[in-house]
Design brief:
The complex is a heterodimer of chains A (about 100) and B (about 220).
Chain A (H helix, E strand, L loop, with lengths): L1 H23 L13 E2 L4 H52 L1
Chain B lengths: L4 H21 L2 E2 L9 H28 L2 H32 L8 H22 L4 H25 L15 H43 L1
Helix pairs in contact in B: 1-6, 2-3, 2-5, 2-6, 3-4, 3-6, 4-5
The chains are: A mainly alpha (about 100), B mainly alpha (about 220).
Chain lengths: ~100, ~220
């Protein structure tokens, strides 16, 4: 038990020491945004690099929602089929 | 399904057809340009992720103290939506951040607490699926922690050093940004309600199935 406690303490210390260089190497971060400012025209250099990310984000939304709706609909159909089957069996049983 | 479900689905479909037009017509943001348009799906998803955690927490609290299985079913359904909308938030966020901040991920208070909230929802679902008898009460307790995390996620950007936009961004949005955002949010909210109703129906049917099995055994 003592050995286990010591091992836990040593491991915690090792993790804490390993985290020091990670935090030390954090790059300087841009300033926090306070407000959004509208712009009439998008600068040409901004158009292409952003497009794949934008498309990817909308694709993730559509795929995630579609997959979830299909998943719920399938589970619902299976359970409803089972409910109907049992109800039919019960009716037959009560008639017999 | 209730009577309102089909008309609401049609309205929701129409709203999701119109939303991209409004988003495309919205002006570009001065510093972020085109990629800022992710905002119109990222923010509504994030809000519904938080709303889902609140619904799950409130329903779980009512189940813990009242014992009504209806509340338990609602909590379970909401937890699944927390996972879905949390996933969308946690993927669209890095896609936006890569272009705006030059990095996919930062371990700031908001992103980290959102990840924790998402993992709590996963823990809830895993507990419900594999926890066995009594896991409903344990999971309900867990949902309370998920709900307690929500205000922390929301205000974290105001109290900790972060590059995430402050909560002042939305109230000060110009109308040209605000219209597509609120329209998009309304569409997402309607979708959330529809999905929640559909998922609750699944739990109702499962409860009915259990009752039928019990009556067969008798």
């Amino acid at each position: 038990m003592d050995f286990l406690k010591r091992a836990c303490v040593v491991l915690t210390l090792l993790f804490a020491l390993a985290a020091v260089p990670v935090f030390a190497q954090q790059p300087a971060q841009p300033e926090q945004t306070e407000e959004f400012i509208p712009l009439d025209q998008l600068p040409p250099q901004d158009q292409l690099p952003a497009a794949p990310l934008l498309i990817a984000a909308y694709a993730v939304l559509v795929l995630a929602l579609f997959a979830y709706v299909v998943s719920v609909a399938r589970r619902l159909a299976i359970v409803q089929r089972e409910v109907q089957r049992l109800e039919t069996d019960l009716k037959r049983g009560s008639r017999a | 399904m209730p009577k309102w479900f089909t008309p609401a689905t049609v309205v929701c479909g129409l709203m999701f057809a119109v939303a991209p037009v409004l988003i495309a017509d919205a002006p570009y943001e001065a510093t972020m340009g085109l990629v800022q348009k992710i905002f119109y799906i990222h923010l509504p998803s994030a809000w519904l992720f938080l709303l889902g955690a609140i619904v799950c927490g409130v329903a779980s609290a009512r189940y813990l103290f009242g014992g009504n299985p209806r509340h338990d079913r609602l909590a379970w359904a909401a937890a699944e939506l927390v996972v879905v909308f949390g996933l969308i938030t946690l993927i669209t966020g890095p896609l936006w951040a890569r272009r705006s901040w030059g990095t996919w991920w930062v371990w700031d208070a908001r992103v980290t607490s959102s990840l924790v909230g998402w993992m709590i929802a996963w823990a809830y679902l895993i507990l419900r699926k594999y926890g066995g008898p009594g896991s409903d009460k344990l999971a309900a307790g867990l949902a309370l922690f998920g709900m307690a995390n929500v205000p922390f996620i929301y205000v974290s950007v105001n109290y900790w050093r972060t590059i995430h936009p402050a909560t002042t961004v939305v109230p000060t949005l110009p109308v040209s940004f605000g219209i597509p955002l609120w329209f998009s949010f309304a569409a997402f909210l309607l979708l959330f309600v529809l999905l929640l109703r559909m998922r609750v129906l699944l739990e109702e049917q499962r409860a009915r199935l259990d009752t039928l099995y019990l009556s067969m055994d008798e």
